């Protein structure tokens, strides 16, 4: 299994080569934390991430498998993805994600069956009678839930049914079928897979407010009517510094109704660019959300909506904002990652955050004999006017070509130094260089040193 670590500056250039060699035999200056999924399991919680199927190789796939015990397809199971044309289905990405999860001992959270968004045009543009619409909804649920029967742990059956003031959102479903579409959808899902836990999922319902109270009243009445409802999903698309103080209390009141609660889509966005102060605040925010879940036994766990900033919906949806996930764009764990680990009882072996520049190595694509790698040199609370990055390949890999750096390889040891135009790494900034290489057998990620 690959590991990804970075070392702080302070290594003298003269000893870099020796360091690289030494690092290979003594791979880290501190022991790595156990993966989040193991820490979470020890607390009886699930730690999940949303994923994009096409990215599940290389470093992205390695981290997904190593750190998380549950996967949610970010888009692959939405109606518009699986049935873009009526009667013509595309299950490829959904199947791939389920297969990946099963291969790595991970749960899958199905997302999502009945929603107002990301529906196919043929559905939203149709002129349906209530009977036709109800039939379409029930058939869709029967087909999709039935396809994965017995294999998915949970389903977000109904997504985002409420307005901010607690009234029902006027959607295709509500307008056509009335509020009872929710009970009908849950009942259809239970019939299609009696073993899946069935959830209603929404955003801005993390704290006690009008919207979460409407959700609470709905769940209460569904329970009273005997409608199958097992849990509520609190999406938790949060803003830096704005974790609701009533989150634990809110989770507890749902638990007291006799349903599970899951944090289903956690991300914490900030105005870009990120800096050390913002990343420190974000770490505190992540920890607050984790602690709210950990404090309530019926809180099943936490899923992040993408684990890396390179796979987050935030920048395209909230212009100017981003850096919302626990790993940066180059797969280096951010303070938020360590905060999650600490909340789960790990993190004791992690060095405290200090002002530093770091280098992080990742494999961005890989084919039968070749691969493309990338190294990002990032600074926070420090800056560089030139840099060198070194590592020792562990499995006979050879660099064939590099860009945005000049690289030399001697035996297994590689040293790359900045090009004439990218030696400067400002405080809060980063520089990336890339290379192609050859490999055979395996292509493990090396430990990199920044000098
Ligand atoms: C988002 C995806 O992450 C994006 O890739 C897509 O373009 C839009 O939808 N609430 C939800 C998720 O329930 O399905 C949404 O996912 C984010 C908000």
Explain what the structure shows.
The protein folds into two domains: 30-343, Glycosidases (TIM Barrel, Alpha-Beta Barrel), CATH 3.20.20.80; 356-448, Sandwich (Immunoglobulin-like), CATH 2.60.40. It is an alpha/beta fold and 451 residues long. The protein contains 14 helices and 18 strands. A hairpin with a 3-residue loop joins strand 11 (356-366) and strand 12. Residues 74-75, 159, 235, 265, 313 line the site of (3S,4R)-3-hydroxy-2-oxopiperidin-4-yl beta-D-xylopyranoside (XIL).
Distance between the termini: 26 Å
Q: What is the CATH level 1 assignment of the largest domain?
A: Alpha Beta
Helix proportion range:
25-40%
Question: Which molecules are bound in this entry?
Answer: (3S,4R)-3-hydroxy-2-oxopiperidin-4-yl beta-D-xylopyranoside
Active site: 265
Domain CBM2: 350-451
Keywords: Carbohydrate metabolism, Glycosidase, Hydrolase, Polysaccharide degradation, Signal, Xylan degradation
InterPro entries: CBD2, CBM2/CBM3_carb-bd_dom_sf, CBM2_carb-bd_dom_sf, GH, GH10, GH10_AS, GH10_dom
